[in-house]
């Protein structure tokens, strides 16, 4: 098994989703840099949608939903989740990158894997990843 295949397999294990399109998860776990920023935009929007839909189902007010979103979807919290789930074990770092992944890059990678799951398997796959990451 190649190192790329190992990183993808580890990401899929952590995320609870087997990607049909392995190129999507591979793109999502590139860091640091701009290679996963388009997926991060999709993931940011998807996470917002999930949180607001969940808030609606739970009968939360608009204010409570906004507070919940702000607590869960901020970069600091997303980076904490990425670190707790040991994303560094499968993030493909560039040869010039040394040391830990920074907060912003880690948060973007968390958003990118959410976006990749959405594109790969629509809302259901994205929801699985969000729940596996504890972002609810």
Automatic annotation (TrEMBL):
A molecular function GO annotation: ribonuclease III activity
Top-level taxon of the source organism: Eukaryota
Residues of the RNase III domain: 37-122
BP terms from Gene Ontology: RNA processing
Ranges in coiled-coil conformation: none
Protein's name according to its UniProt entry: RNase III domain-containing protein
SUPFAM superfamilies per record: RNase III domain-like (SSF69065)
């Amino acid at each position: 098994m190649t190192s790329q295949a190992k990183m993808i397999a580890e990401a899929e294990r952590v995320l609870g989703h087997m990607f049909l399109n392995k190129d999507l998860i591979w793109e999502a776990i590139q860091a640091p840099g701009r290679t996963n920023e388009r997926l991060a935009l999709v993931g940011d929007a998807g996470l917002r949608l999930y949180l607001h839909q969940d808030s609606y189902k739970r009968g939360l007010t608009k204010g409570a939903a906004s507070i919940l979103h702000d607590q869960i979807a901020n970069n600091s919290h997303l980076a904490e989740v990425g670190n707790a789930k040991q994303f560094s074990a499968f993030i493909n770092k560039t040869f010039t990158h040394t040391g830990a992944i920074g907060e912003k890059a880690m948060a973007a990678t968390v958003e990118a894997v959410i976006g990749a799951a959405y594109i790969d398997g629509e809302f259901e796959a994205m929801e699985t990843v969000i729940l596996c990451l504890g972002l609810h």
